[in-house]
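Lab channel / #folding
Pinned by the channel admin:
"Please post every new chain as: sequence first, then the structure tokens as a reply. Keep commentary short and put observations after the output so the thread stays searchable."

First post following the new format, from NK:
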Amino acid sequence: MNRFWKVSPWLVRLVLLPPTVIFALIASRYLLNPIQAASAVGIAFTSPLGITIARVGFAGFPLGCSIFTLSCLLSTQRLLTGLRFVGTMIAAALVVRVYGMIIDGTTAANMHLVRAEIILLVIVAIGAFVETARLRRLQPANA
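Reply from TO:
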């Protein structure tokens, strides 16, 4: 069991890696060609300002999220912070997606993403549980 706690930071990093990559992929898609990326899902822009706003909203924020989660992934002290951040982001996205599905009637088109977000949220919660337990095990040694 002691060996598990030694490798647990690496397991938690494995949990943080997919969201870091997902945020980066979303950012790159909308940063490089927001018109093509948006039109693929039925979004149209009518002005250059709209394109810039899309770059900021659809690329800037996910890029910032990716950079933040990467910095947490690289730091043993910020692993739990990264997990909490990702959990918050995924939970917020899930709530907004479900709201949109209800209001917009897009349930069938969104169910695969809902499943993926729920699975990711569960994995992140497990990672947070493991990291919290690891940190609690370290407390008596440091006290």
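NK: Residues 2-142 form one domain.
TO: also worth noting, The CA atoms of residues 30 and 57 lie 9 Å apart.
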